[in-house]
């Protein structure tokens, strides 16, 4: 029987432990608040130092890992941390684990608790190689190893999460503007699907090609026209008594790209305003 230790029994870690138990793994667990292990058919450890060779960590951030393991010897252990933090902190953490004799696999899991262990689940991994533990990691979801730099998994995870949060927030705003989420749903659903597929609404692949090439054709829909359209959405939201934080931010960004000289270019040129922001520091 394969052993796995799960550290962190929040919504995610608890479900991970459950899924490993269901698949016949010998599971041990540790959580800062031990009461959260109640009802789990797993061995509750007194301390993370007692963890086995494969340790899955799911906590609020990476500081929690430092707080949990303290000065524990990690010789021979592979820590797979699926917690959120910045790519830079993941790189620091890889050095911290190596200094204590262990190996750190960093990861970002792309499903909520009910998705763990189902066919829709996938996880970005980076840092130490995953081959030795591929079978055990596959229990949680499809293994997507994106590179040796320990920060990469989080970069992929956060990029996806940014699309997820901003898209869903725009849906919330749009449903408030329309006055009904249910009436909006079929149209929004069709649009979101279309954005990623082929055809005249396939703006994600069109945008991706354009951004990679640094060429932003605007003959059919120039950015100036879209910045004006965005202003109209801000005004419509204000007229409806809604919060305008998000639409105003988009309007400002579009206008910033126009000020940078992209008024006649296409929507993809907004990426230049986004990148200019980081250069301004
Ligand atoms: N929930 C989701 O849908 C989802 C999806 C993908 C990824 N994630 C990521 O998965 C991770 C866990 O999420 P979650 O939803 O399970 O969070 P959660 O329910 O809030 O659980 C947080 C866990 O972190 C532990 N923790 C916090 N600070 C700690 C510290 N200083 N020392 C030791 N343990 C500490 C908590 O222990 P106590 O029980 O003692 O407080 C608990 O086990 C997060 O990084 C999150 O971003 C979540």
Give a description of the structure:
The chain has 281 residues and is α/β, with parallel strands linked by helices. The chain has two domains: 3-148, Rossmann fold; 158-280, N-(1-d-carboxylethyl)-l-norvaline Dehydrogenase, domain 2 (Orthogonal Bundle). The chain is built from ten helices and eight strands. Strands 3-2-1-4-5-6-7-8 form an eight-stranded mixed β-sheet, sandwiched between helices. It starts with a strand and ends with a helix. The mean pLDDT is 96.
Write the layout of secondary structure elements.
Layout: E1 3-7, H1 11-22, E2 26-30, E3 43-44, E4 54-57, H2 62-69, E5 78-81, H3 87-99, E6 103-109, E7 122-127, H4 134-138, E8 142-147, H5 152-178, H6 181-196, H7 203-213, H8 223-239, H9 245-262, H10 270-280
Parallel strand pairs: 1-2, 1-4, 2-3, 4-5, 5-6, 7-8
Antiparallel strand pairs: 6-7
The protein binds NADP nicotinamide-adenine-dinucleotide phosphate (NAP).
NADP nicotinamide-adenine-dinucleotide phosphate binds next to helix 1 and helix 2.
How many structural domains can be distinguished in the coordinates?
2
Question: What would you call the shape?
Answer: elongated
* Distinct small molecules bound, one entry per kind: NADP nicotinamide-adenine-dinucleotide phosphate
Number of DSSP-assigned strands: 8
Order of H and E elements? EHEEEHEHEEHEHHHHHH
Number of distinct helices: 10
* Assembly context of the chains: single chain
**What is the topology, as strand order, of the major beta sheet?**
3-2-1-4-5-6-7-8
As a whole number of angstroms, the C-alpha radius of gyration is 23 Å
Please describe the biggest sheet, giving its number of strands, its sense, and whether it closes into a barrel: 8 strands, mixed
Low-confidence stretches: none
Mean pLDDT: 96
**Can you tell me the CATH topology of the largest domain?**
Rossmann fold
Strand fraction: 5-15%
What is the share of helical residues?
A: 40-55%
Question: Could you give the distance between the termini?
Answer: 52 Å
In the CATH hierarchy, what is the superfamily of the largest domain? Answer: NAD(P)-binding Rossmann-like Domain
CATH architecture of the largest domain: 3-Layer(aba) Sandwich
């Amino acid at each position: 029987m394969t052993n796995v230790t799960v550290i962190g029994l929040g919504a995610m870690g608890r479900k991970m432990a459950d899924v490993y138990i269901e698949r016949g793994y010998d599971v041990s667990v540790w959580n800062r608040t031990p009461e959260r292990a109640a009802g789990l058919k797993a061995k509750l450890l007194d301390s993370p130092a007692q963890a086995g060779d494969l340790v899955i960590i799911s906590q609020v951030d990476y500081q929690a890992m430092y707080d949990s393991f303290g000065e524990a010897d990690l010789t021979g252990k592979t820590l797979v941390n699926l917690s959120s933090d910045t790519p830079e902190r993941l790189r620091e953490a890889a050095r911290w684990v190596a200094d204590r004799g262990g190996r750190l696999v960093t990861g970002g899991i792309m499903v909520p608790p009910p998705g763990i262990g189902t066919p829709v689940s996938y996880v970005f991994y980076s840092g130490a190689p995953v081959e030795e533990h591929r079978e055990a990691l596959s229990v949680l979801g499809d293994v997507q190893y994106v590179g040796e730099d320990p920060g990469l998994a989080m970069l992929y995870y956060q990029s996806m999460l940014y699309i997820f949060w901003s898209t869903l927030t725009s849906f919330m705003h749009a449903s408030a503007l329309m006055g009904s989420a249910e009436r909006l749903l079929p149209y929004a659903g069709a649009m979101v699907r279309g954005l990623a597929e082929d055809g005249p609404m396939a703006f994600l692949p069109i945008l991706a090609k354009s951004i990679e090439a640094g060429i932003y054709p605007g003959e059919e829909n120039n950015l100036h026209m879209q910045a004006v359209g965005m202003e109209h959405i801000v005004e419509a939201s204000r007229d409806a008594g809604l919060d305008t934080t998000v639409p105003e931010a988009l309007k400002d960004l579009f206008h910033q790209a126009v000020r940078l000289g992209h008024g006649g270019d296409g929507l993809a040129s907004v990426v230049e305003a986004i990148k200019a922001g980081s250069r301004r520091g």
